[in-house]
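Is this the right way to post structure tokens for a design question? Let me know if I should format differently. Anyway, here goes:
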């Protein structure tokens, strides 16, 4: 089973690269950002709570996202593997994911981190904000806050996987196709090990 964590700051290309990776490796795509946005669109209580935080560029509580991932793992027991996109974003989320996967008799294969500087991130997200309708993409201060939230709370997750010998970094600047090829090469190396 191939279980991939795609890691990086907001706008690094996680969602973009996931689209191609799920096709190539036949993986189930679990994006906590997409799951939260579908709760918002459905107007659920969870969605309303999440929206208040997301609109401020803040992370939603760990138990909310962990619960969503737990349900999705149960719903996809026969999957060939998973791509975790935007999750885990805190060390407690990473610990919870390890324990959930252990209950299903599997584990994370590799974490691929996309490295992109904050000026490029801001540029990409403001461009996406013109068409995405996402409130969190439309304001430069809010984008900087999301990047700060990432630097404060999410970067320790890289150390967590590094200690397990599962961390690989990829330059996230360049063409989408070239970055995709670099990610695939790292995944293929990890699977062969
Ligand atoms: P996410 O939905 O995960 O959104 P994101 O960080 O903005 O990254 P995304 O994957 O969408 O962007 P991508 O880099 O592909 O999170 C949104 C919010 O949800 C968070 O701020 C948080 O509040 C909440 N949340 C989600 N998960 C959570 C969790 N686990 N715990 C707590 N809270 C959570 O693409 C960005 C743009 O760049 C695109 O327009 C794309 O076209 C462009 N792009 C991509 N690759 C490019 C390249 N190589 N060159 C040029 N442009 C490129």
């Amino acid at each position: 089973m191939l279980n991939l964590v795609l890691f990086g700051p907001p706008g690094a290309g996680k969602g973009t690269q996931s689209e191609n990776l799920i096709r190539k490796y036949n993986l189930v795509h679990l994006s906590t950002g997409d799951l939260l946005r579908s709760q918002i669109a459905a107007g659920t209580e969870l969605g309303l709570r999440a929206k208040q935080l997301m609109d401020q560029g803040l992370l939603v509580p760990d138990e909310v996202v962990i619960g969503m991932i737990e349900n999705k793992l149960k719903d996809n027991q026969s999957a060939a593997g998973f791509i975790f996109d935007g999750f885990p974003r805190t060390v407690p989320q990473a610990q919870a994911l390890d324990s959930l996967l252990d209950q299903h008799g599997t584990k994370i294969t590799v974490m691929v981190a996309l490295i992109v500087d904050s000026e490029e991130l801001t540029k990409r997200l403001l461009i996406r904000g013109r068409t995405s309708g996402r409130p969190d993409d439309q304001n430069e201060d809010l984008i900087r806050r999301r990047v700060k939230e990432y630097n404060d709370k999410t970067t320790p997750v890289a150390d967590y996987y590094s200690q397990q010998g599962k961390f690989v970094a990829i330059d996230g600047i360049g063409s989408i196709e070239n970055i995709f090829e670099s990610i695939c090469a790292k995944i293929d190396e990890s699977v062969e090990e």
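Format looks fine. Someone answered above. Worth noting: The beta strands are 2-7, 28-31, 81-85, 110-115, 167-171. The two ends are 13 Å apart (CA to CA).
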